[in-house]
Amino acid sequence: MRSKRGASVSTFQSSLLTKIPFGRSNGNFLGKFPCVRVAYICFIVVALGYRSIWMDVAPIGWNGEETSAINKTNGSKTETFSADPTENNHIIVENLDPADDGESSNLHSTASDQITQHTSAPSRRQDESEKIHRLHMYEINSWPVQNYLERELASSHQNFGNTSLYQQKYCNLQGRPWCPAGKNKWQRRAPHFMILGVKKAGSSSLYFALTQHPKIVSAQRKELLLFSQKRFLFNKYLTPTSAQRDPHDKHLINTTHVVNVQTIRDDLTKRFRLGDLLKDSQAVSFDATPQYIFDFPTAARPILCTCPWVKLVVILRNPVDRLWSHFNFLKRLQMKSNFGRSPTMKLSFEDWVIKDLERMEKRGLLSKPLPPSSQMMDEQAMMQSWHDYTADFSEGPVGRGFYALQLHQWMKEIRRFGRDPKHILKVVRLEDLKGHVNGESVIPQRILGELVEWLLQDGRGSVSSQHVQGTKKQVFRQHMDTRYDKLGDPVLSKRTREWLDMFYAPQNKMLAKLLGDKGWDYGSAPSKPMVWPANKNAIIKNMSIEASSLFLPSMEIDIAMNDPCYHENE
Ligand SMILES: Nc1ncnc2c1ncn2[C@@H]1O[C@H](COP(=O)(O)OS(=O)(=O)O)[C@@H](OP(=O)(O)O)[C@H]1O
């Protein structure tokens, strides 16, 4: 028996085919031009092909189940697992426009409607215990990358040598003068600060909150991704020093890459709203790309070379919540974007995690069982492994929760540039950015005010936090509440959560060690709000004159005509 759907497809197909102008003598325009005729036929074939593929797709549910797992009508939640561990399929989300989230909520409903309608495919279940057993095979304490970090944090006084030599060596200005912060005309057109990460920890909310400030001009879009390795054109932006050049591996990342500063600046300049920036001499701009913290092997040095004045903000979130949010985000994205054909997100959460653990293992970042001591990683090996892991378009969901490692590497690079991470890096937690006004989730005014004050500190008095009071709360909502709209809450199993808490515990402890306060250890469930560095007033007071000049957003640049920096980037 032919289905209704099949009937409608064939009616559609035949109606198109009968309309194809095959006749030679009918004087039809298409009939006279064979090329146009061929193109028309190709178009129809492709269109029909796409249509039938799309209509044959079995929509998927939260845990990879065909949709019997989700009962939207009665709102019940079912936890299920898929037995469909499919390899090598990638969802690329790097260009996701945050503004799209709210707008496309109607797509959510379309996808979820399809989900509830589809009940015919058989359910495939996999034993949860077996998955938990597989997860338990990975013990983070034994990982090379964890050992690396332990060793690094144990040697508290690392010697970074001559820091200005480091800049000269690795920041290629292509014949231009090195202009310090505050003397750099280009600085007006460049980001004054950056939100580095982490993904799924509230960067969109913060981004929209900050853009409400009268002196803060957003970049052309959230997530410029210019320094992200997916976009990074190695030959253009980074040059390996000749001693290290490997003709077979252009993407070899090593500690000797030279940054082509001017080339990056030329590209970066195009990404900001120059008109708005130049109109108001006090306005500054910023880039919020949560990918940057994760891409430390490629992003840290170019950012510090190119924008030596830049301030950096990192928002953290309990790594298990972050991971879970990431998974659901990809699921939703898949539904929204008609990615139903991609089997990637048919994976259950546990399978998705295991896949990523396997990727990390493949890259030598972790191992099961215990690594022999010969597997000790040095920085170069860790950078290369991390780079390979992050470069395979898999989103690297598990590794993103290694906050201590990522922050440590950023701090190390900042020190190599002769700067103190306490002066230019601020770390906050999403858990402390959660506030409620009239039942709506907002970033608390006090935290936002302090952050803005720190970001815009320019030596001439700070900007009052009242500027941000007019922040449009609905903008936050748009980026939060649409998340769980029509689909109903998926459920993270208790056992999986327990395993993940245990899994991240050593990294969480390292984080507390790195930031010097036990409160940062997510495992210890801190109750007080955490901001790093803890005492901003003390830091500002103790800053040397040289260091404080790095804070200047170069609002009123006073450069003598004969100063080479005057002519830079006219
Ligand atoms: N103020 C406030 N209070 C509480 N929760 C908040 C807030 N701002 C953002 N969020 C939650 O952060 C998650 C989205 O993070 P991002 O905007 O960084 O996502 S993205 O990386 O830009 O895609 C997303 O988490 P999940 O809902 O768990 O997915 C948001 O709900």
Explain the overall architecture.
The protein has 570 residues and is of the alpha/beta class. It has two domains: 4-117, no CATH class; 140-172 and 186-321 and 341-484 and 494-567, Rossmann fold (3-Layer(aba) Sandwich), CATH 3.40.50.300. The chain has 24 helices and eleven strands. The protein has helices at 4-18, 29-32, 34-56, 99-103, 105-117, 128-136, 144-154, 163-170, 203-211, 234-237, 261-269, 274-279, 291-294, 296-306, 319-336, 349-362, 379-390, 403-416, 421-424, 445-456, 473-480, 494-515, 536-542, 545-549; strands spanning 171-172, 191-197, 216-218, 238-240, 257-260, 284-288, 311-316, 425-429, 435-437, 440-442, 531-532. The strands form three sheets. Strands 3-6-2-7-8-11 form a six-stranded mixed sheet. A hairpin with a 2-residue loop joins strand 9 and strand 10 (440-442). Helix 6 packs parallel to helix 16 (349-362), helix 9 packs antiparallel against helix 21 (473-480) and helix 14 (296-306) packs parallel to helix 18. The longest helix has 23 residues, at 34-56. 38% of the residues are buried. Bound molecules: 3'-phosphate-adenosine-5'-phosphate sulfate (PPS). 3'-phosphate-adenosine-5'-phosphate sulfate binds next to helix 9, helix 15, strand 10 and helix 21.
